[in-house]
Specification:
The chain has 24 helices and eleven strands. The strands form two sheets. Strands 2, 3, 4, 5, 8 and 9 form a six-stranded antiparallel beta sheet that branches. The protein has a five-stranded antiparallel beta sheet with strand order 1-11-10-6-7. Among the domains are: 2-251, PPM-type phosphatase domain (Phosphatase 2c, domain 1, 4-Layer Sandwich); 264-374; 718-791. By secondary structure, the chain is an alpha+beta fold.
């Protein structure tokens, strides 16, 4: 027990002074480990002053004995308990209603002391014969001292030394003056508990002087009492002094802390923390719900806008939704982040943001697809079928690749329409080529060929709903009919001209017939061609007959000359000359003219030798035969030449017809190839959507090969842009295939293979113009694979 280690001697005296009743009360208890001293000074003017002092001292000693401790809190608790007990007594009877008391409490652990007071009871600590410290009063005079308006030694003379600021029994809460730090005691220390009747009549220096004079502390108290009684005051208050002499102290012991109070404080702090946490949780839940509600609203608005085809507004709404989810990312890291599960919340938010970014990418594709469709429709309506086909193919690829809002946007219906438009574009391109071929045929005068081309083009236009184009071709066909009528009129005029010249000018008639025949042949009228051929044959027969007649007449005329009938010869030769003139055979006309001149000369020179005339006759006869043969041969050559020209023209027309047929067949073959290429491309697109990338690449390569064959032919538009588009698709699908294989390697922990394939996938997808969010996803997986691939065996502790 600590009490056995220490030795504390307590001496006290308490008297009424000049008063009839002593209202002071002193008590103390020395326990095994702790001790308590208490003195109270009840107010004399009140009937219950003595009762108040007794209750105060007894209640604090009672409390201390039940809960002995050595700390600041127990003094405060005892003060409050004493105040409670006095107030309870005040309520028992009217006569006690105004009773109050000052109170001083000193506690010790036999090594140190703590003290506290309310009112004007006072504590003194004496060491080495001198007062080293004293307590403060709860009086107005003490306030003046604190404000340096009054010396501390003058308090006992001040008229307001008994005007208390607080006391035990006050209605409100009391705030006792308690020292916070324990005062460590030494041997021969003395501490005193006094009431106002003592300290207002004793000077501190007198206390020190008397202490130095008496070794016996009882004598010292008696000496101090004598000084009180010798005071010049007429009215001496009740006075009490208790002095405790420390002759030995126990070993040091730390001041006990009030565990119950600590527990209360801890519980209070826990409650406050819990309340704060609950508030934060509720606030976070409310904030999170508000953010999620706003995000849901933005998502709903985005869905509504996309159905209205307002793609830009939809993307803006989704970006606002991303902004809301960014707010859900906690910033806390480290230990706070660990306990608040911040990393998971950030990952969840990032996952949701990735989903929204994927939606934005899908909408971008949809937007691009619908833009391509609009541009393709405009090009289609303007007749630019190649460019329209490219736009439709791009739109089809984007829509095939899209999975977002597929049903709401009627994607399948749109794809069916696109396929129809693509097929129509191919057919309409063929129709346009046929129309152009018809135009060329019209310019060349091949009206039948033009009609065939126009009719084929018109059938295609009708099958593809181009009624306005059909009406244009019908107008062209009507124009051809008008031109045919004009051509028929021209042919008939030429034929009539030939008829009119048949008797007068066979050569001109023949030329007219040949002209008419060529025109009929171009018009495809084989009946008229046959009729004109007959007329030409009749002309040739008539010409041959006339030539024969003329030749016979010349022979007969020469015979008449030989027979010395020059006059008859001149008549016959003149007939032959007229026939030659009719045939426009100037050469024979000149020859016969010479014969006539010779006959005329023969008449003049009848006397000339008959032998000479015979010789001349023979000469002329041979010459005439030669000329006749030459002329006949010339006619045959002319006829052959004309026949060759006609055959060449017929062959040319036949070749043109064959070329047209070959071109038609070729176009049909190319159309089938392009249609086959489109079907293969559609199959490849679907395989890509189903993530059957290797089969998709094979289909794309097959499509590319067909288009390269078509492009090499060069007669069905430039397919370079389409081939380049296929190359991009192939590169993109190769990227997706590498990505898929890389992810498989990553899953199977083949880190280096995953790094290689994901790197190649990233390069190919970047070249093919893939969206950044997909590239970012690959980069994230690539970073993970690289980190794993580069980790050494001793770095097993690393967390990624």
């Amino acid at each position: 027990m600590r009490k056995d280690e220490a030795k504390f001697i307590t001496e006290f005296l308490s008297e009424a002074g000049t008063k009839t009743e002593n209202s002071d009360y002193f008590g103390y208890v020395l326990l095994d480990n702790y001790a308590i001293w208490a003195v109270a000074d009840g107010f004399d003017e009140e009937e219950g002053a003595k009762v108040a002092a007794r209750i105060a001292v007894e209640s604090v000693i009672e409390y201390f004995m039940l809960c002995p401790r050595f700390n600041y809190d127990v003094i405060k608790e005892m003060m409050d308990y004493a105040n409670l007990k006095v107030k309870e007594k005040q309520e028992e009877a009217q006569k006690y209603s105004l009773m109050h008391t000052s109170l001083l409490i000193v506690i010790s652990n036999y090594n140190s002391i703590l003290y506290g007071n309310v009112g004007n009871t006072r504590f003194y600590h004496i060491r080495g014969g001198y007062i080293v410290s004293q307590s403060k009063d709860d009086t107005i005079a003490q306030l003046l001292v604190d404000e340096e308006a009054l010396n501390v030694s003058d308090i006992r003379f001040h008229r307001q030394r008994n005007d208390l600021l607080q006391a035990i029994g006050d209605f409100g809460k009391i705030n006792p003056n308690i020292i916070r730090s324990p005062v460590e005691l030494m041997e021969k220390d003395i501490f005193c508990l006094t009431t106002v009747g003592f300290w207002e009549n004793i000077d501190e220096h007198d206390m020190e002087n008397d202490l130095s004079r008496f070794e016996d502390k009882k004598q010292w108290l008696n000496s101090l009492e004598k000084r009180i009684l010798a005071s010049l005051r007429d009215n001496i208050e009740n006075y009490t002094i208790a002095q405790v002499e420390v002759q030995a102290v126990a070993s040091p012991e730390p001041m006990e802390k009030d565990r119950s109070k600590i527990i209360k404080k801890i519980l209070l702090i826990i409650m406050i923390v819990v309340v704060i946490i609950l508030f934060i949780v509720i606030w976070n839940v409310k904030r999170r719900n508000g953010i999620l509600q706003a995000a849901t609203q933005y998502e709903k608005l985005a869905d509504e806008e996309i159905l209205k085809k307002n793609f830009n507004n939809s993307i803006d709404d989704l970006k606002l939704e991303i902004g809301e989810y960014e707010k859900l990312k906690p910033k806390s890291r480290g230990i706070i982040g660990f306990f608040t599960n911040a990393e998971k919340k950030r990952n969840d938010a990032d996952k949701k943001i990735d989903e929204i970014n994927k939606k934005i990418g899908e909408i971008e594709k949809i937007k691009e697809a619908f833009t391509d469709i609009d541009e393709g429709n405009e090009l289609f309506n303007n007749g630019n079928y190649d460019e329209a086909n490219v736009k439709y193919q791009q739109a089809k690829y984007n829509l095939n690749d899209n999975t977002y809002k597929r049903d709401e946007l009627n994607t399948e219906e749109i794809l069916t329409t696109l396929d129809s438009r693509i097929n129509s574009a191919v057919k309409l391109k063929e129709a346009k080529a046929l129309e152009m071929a018809g135009d060329n045929a019209v310019n060349e005068g091949s009206f039948n060929l033009a009609k065939v081309s126009y009719k084929n083009a018109m059938d295609i236009y009708l099958a593809n709903g181009k009624a306005d184009y059909v009406s244009q071709i019908e107008k062209k066909i009507e124009e051809i009919s008008d031109k045919e009528k004009t051509a028929y009129n021209g042919a008939m005029l030429a034929e009539n001209k030939g008829d009119s010249l048949a008797q007068s000018n066979i050569n001109s008639s023949r030329e007219a017939y040949y002209q008419a025949r060529q025109m009929y042949q171009v018009l495809g009228d084989t009946v008229k061609v046959g009729e004109v051929d007959n007329k030409i044959q009749e002309l040739n027969s008539q010409q041959n007959a006339d030539l024969q007649t003329a030749n016979n007449l010349v022979q007969e005329g020469l015979s008449q000359i030989t027979a010395n009938n020059p006059a008859q010869a001149i008549s016959i030769l003149t007939q032959a000359k007229n026939i030659y003139q009719k045939m426009k055979d100037t050469n024979n006309v000149n020859i016969v003219g010479k014969y006539i001149n010779q006959a005329q000369e023969f008449i003049k020179f009848e006397s000339q030798n008959v032998e000479k005339l015979k010789a001349q006759k023979l000469e002329y006869s041979e010459k005439l035969k030669s000329q006749e043969t030459e002329y006949s041969e010339k006619l045959k050559q002319q006829e052959i030449q004309l026949q060759q020209q006609l055959q060449a023209k017929e062959m040319e027309i036949k070749v043109q017809q064959e070329q047209m047929e070959q071109e038609r067949q070729k176009r049909e073959e190319i159309s089938r190839k392009i249609e086959n290429a489109l079907n293969l491309e559609m199959q490849a697109d679907q395989l890509a959507i189903d993530e059957k990338f290797e089969e998709s690449i094979a289909k794309y390569e097959e499509t590319k090969k067909i288009l390269e064959e078509v492009n090499t032919d060069g007669n069905f538009g430039n397919q370079v842009a389409k081939i380049e588009g296929l190359n991009k698709k192939i590169e993109k699908i190769e990227g997706y295939l590498l990505k898929k294989n890389g992810e498989e390697d990553l899953k199977n922990k083949r880190w280096k293979d995953a790094v290689e394939k994901l790197t190649q996938a990233k390069e190919k997808l970047e070249k093919s113009g893939t969206k950044q969010n997909e590239i970012a996803e690959i980069e994230k997986k690539l970073k993970k694979a690289e980190k794993k691939a580069n980790k050494k065996w001793w770095q097993f502790w690393k967390i990624f």
